[in-house]
Every structure is written in C-alpha cells, then in structure tokens.
C-alpha cells in the first residue's frame, strides 16, 4: 500500500469545548431499536451503569449505586433514584442519562457531549480530584459504556493535525519535520512535528522479530528521524534479519545509514532537535519522552514563540485554570503535549527554581529559525512558554491517573 504523505495526515485546528445543560425535549431519547425504553429497561440500564462504575472506580456495587444516584441523577441514594424513576419524578435535566448505554441513540450521545463538563463538576464533589480533567472525562463516558467523544474538560485546548507544511528551516521539501503556527494568548508560536521511526511501525514482522527490532532501536537515545523513504527502512530490516547468526551482533544499530540525514541542512536541524530532546530527557530522566501516534505515523513535538505577525491564525487562550505544576496540557488526538510555563519578571528574567533546565531548553529552542523570547501574559503574570512532547509519567499522571470515591 502506498504511503500517505504525512503532511496530509497532520491537520491543525484549535477547539474549545464548553457545555451547559441543553434545552431539549428529554422524552425524545430512544433505544437502539427506535422505541422508547420501558421503565424496566431503564432500571436495568441504570443498574448496568452502576456495575460499570463499580469496576472503573474499584469499589463495591452498593457504593457505586449510591455514587451514580448522587453524582449523575441528583438523588439522595440509589433507593431514592429508583423511587423517582418509578414515580416519573426525576429531574428533566438528568432523565436523558437513563438512556445512555453502549448502543445509545444519537440524541442521547449528543446530550452527554453537551453536558459532560457539568457532570464533571458534580463528580468532583464525590471523588478525589485527579491531576487533570482527562481521567474524569474518561470515567464519565466509561460509566455509560461509551468511548470518549468530547475534548477534556475545563476547555482544554485541542489541536487536530492536518495540512502542516515541511519545515521552513530546510530549502528542500522533507518528510522528516513539519511545522505550523498558532497563537496562544495573542503570542505567535511555531510548532514542529518531528516524524520518527520506531520498532512498532514494522507491522509485517513477527512477534519474535519485533522483540529483536525493539532491542536494535534501543541503541538510540532518541528514535531516529524519518529522513529516508519507508522502503529503505524495510530493506534495512530485511538485511538485519538475514545477518542474524552470520556475524557477531554490532554495538551500533544496523539502521545507522538510514538514520543519517541526507543534507547538511537536515543534519543541522537534527542536531538542534536532539539537543532540545536531550535537555528535556536530562531534566525528566526518570521517565522517557512519549512519542505521539497518528494513524501509524509517529512524532515528537517541539514549540516556541516567534516574532511572527501572521494574520488569521487559530488562537486559543490559557488561563490559570489550565495550569498544573507550571504546565498546561494540550490535547492532540489521543495524545497530549506539554506547554511549560517559565515565569519571568518585568525585565524578562526567569524567577523560578529550575534555572539550569530553563537556560538549556530556552537556549536551544532559540536556535530554531524565527524563535524569540516573547512573553505570554496570563492573569497578570508573565511567562516564557515552550511546548514539548510529554513523558510517559506525565501521560499516566494527566491522562490515566486513578479516580476514586471520597470517603464519607
């Protein structure tokens, strides 16, 4: 199958999600057969929601029943929920949730999309608040047996990747690095998507061969950039497997020739990229950088402010509500990247306690074409902001962190 140009796969949009309980006819929600759900079906469906909550929250069924009664249906407990369902006295704004299940109608799913943020606000009264809104969003969708179909809460900025351009640092078109420009709080930023090669991309090889490829690619500190055509990497993989057992295993990777840049300009750009990744890796050495995956194409991300004044760029705004440990999470597909906020004073001098890391990451990213130290203002505070791929630990903490019910 011919490889699709990765520049067409990276589509960029910025979206904000905001919800309020929608004014809809709450009695129009049908089951998958197109019929109104009977009271017995609704009772069974709510029971199944409680069972899913029990599994997702790792708690007893009794506790999960009362949890959904209070957090979703605004009832005192599960008995109260059942009584109100039987007497047709549930609040109109929560009644549509009774119809939500893995094969819900479009109306039901759209209602949840519109109200997932307000549901999360209620959930926060009954669970330990996670490090980011993403796990709470996933919990809400999971209780109804659905995959998340809306952005994380608190209006988390979301980037969809499409129509990125080859990196302007290179005179020749390249499939290795792509770029796009956005605005954050009216400051222009340049984002770089660095396409890389990882062992998981060799999907036609056996499980045993995948283990051997993973060991071979572990010889690189950072995954090699996709400068060469994919067929070249496949040929190298064939040659690698044919050589096994015929000579001692080399200390260097068998893919080094394919990993080499084609031009001096590519080499210079790769040096800056790897220098930036090294600064990040040295600071967060307990956890590896996590590549982002888009339909089989794998990327590292870097971003920095520029002096550009391009008109009509997509703009989103970071507020204090988005900042967690001097970071802002930005969602890209099923991946996240991190915007790191380095607070500065009126003179532009860094005032935090990570001086060595700030000097390294700021210094290396200034080597990219058009980079600047333009300041972003958030609620009166001034920040120098840089964007990077997240680490495995950050992904677990902010996307997959555990949610548990508060003790009474």
Major sheet description: 13 strands, mixed
- The low-pLDDT segments are 1-35, 151-155
How many structural domains does the protein architecture include? 2
Helix content: 25-40%
What does this structure look like?
This protein has 408 residues and is α+β, with helices and mostly antiparallel strands. It folds into two domains: 107 residues, no CATH class; 254 residues, no CATH class. Strands 1, 2, 3, 4, 5, 6, 7, 8, 9, 10, 11, 12 and 13 form a 13-stranded mixed β-sheet that branches. α2 crosses α3, α3 crosses α4 and α10 packs antiparallel against α11. The protein is globular, with a radius of gyration of 25 Å. The N and C termini lie far apart (57 Å).
Topology of helices and strands:
Layout (H helix, E strand, L loop, with lengths): L5 H4 L1 E5 L23 H19 L3 H11 L6 H9 L19 H18 L10 H10 L14 E6 L1 E2 L10 E8 L2 E10 L10 H11 L12 H14 L12 H4 L4 H20 L8 E3 L2 E9 L9 E2 L6 E2 L2 E6 L2 E10 L10 H11 L10 E3 L2 E9 L2 H8 L9
Parallel strand pairs: 2-10, 4-8
Antiparallel strand pairs: 1-2, 3-4, 4-5, 5-7, 6-7, 7-13, 9-10, 10-11, 11-13, 12-13
């Amino acid at each position: 199958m011919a490889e699709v140009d990765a520049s067409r796969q990276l589509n960029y949009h910025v979206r904000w999600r905001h919800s309020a309980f929608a004014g809809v006819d709450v009695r129009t929600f049908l089951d998958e057969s197109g019929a109104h759900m009977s009271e017995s079906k609704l009772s069974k469906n709510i029971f199944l929601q409680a069972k899913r909550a029990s599994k997702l929250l790792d708690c007893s069924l009794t506790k999960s029943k009362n949890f959904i009664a209070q957090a979703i249906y605004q009832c005192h407990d599960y008995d109260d929920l059942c009584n109100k369902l039987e007497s047709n006295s549930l609040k109109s704004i929560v009644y549509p949730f009774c119809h939500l299940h893995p094969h819900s109608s479009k109306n039901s799913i759209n209602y949840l999309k519109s109200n997932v943020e307000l549901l999360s606000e209620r959930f926060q009264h009954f669970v330990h608040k996670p490090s980011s809104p993403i796990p709470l969003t996933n919990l809400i969708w999971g209780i109804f047996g659905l995959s998340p179909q809306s952005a994380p809460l608190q209006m988390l900025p979301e980037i969809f990747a499409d129509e990125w351009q080859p990196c302007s640092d290179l005179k020749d078109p390249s499939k290795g690095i792509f770029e796009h420009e956005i605005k954050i709080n009216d400051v222009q930023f340049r984002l770089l998507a660095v396409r890389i090669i990882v062992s998981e991309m060799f999907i036609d090889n056996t499980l045993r061969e995948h283990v051997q490829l993973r060991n071979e690619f572990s010889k690189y500190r950072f995954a090699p950039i996709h400068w060469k055509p994919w067929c070249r990497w496949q040929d190298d993989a064939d040659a690698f497997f044919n050589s096994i057992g015929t000579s001692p295993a080399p200390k260097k990777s068998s893919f080094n020739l394919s990993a080499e840049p084609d031009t001096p300009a590519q080499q210079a750009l790769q040096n800056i990229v790897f220098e930036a990744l090294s600064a990040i890796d040295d600071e967060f050495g307990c956890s590896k950088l996590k590549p982002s995956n888009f339909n089989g194409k794998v990327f590292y991300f870097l971003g920095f402010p520029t002096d550009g004044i391009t008109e009509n760029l997509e703009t989103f705004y970071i507020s204090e509500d988005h900042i967690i440990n001097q970071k802002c999470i930005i969602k890209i597909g099923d991946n996240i990247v991190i915007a790191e906020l380095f607070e500065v004073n009126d003179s532009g001098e860094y005032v935090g306690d990570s001086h060595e890391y700030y000097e390294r990451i700021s210094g290396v990213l200034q080597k990219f074409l058009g980079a600047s130290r333009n300041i972003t203002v958030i609620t009166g505070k001034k920040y120098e902001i840089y964007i990077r791929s997240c680490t495995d630990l950050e992904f677990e903490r902010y996307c997959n962190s555990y949610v548990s019910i508060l003790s009474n």
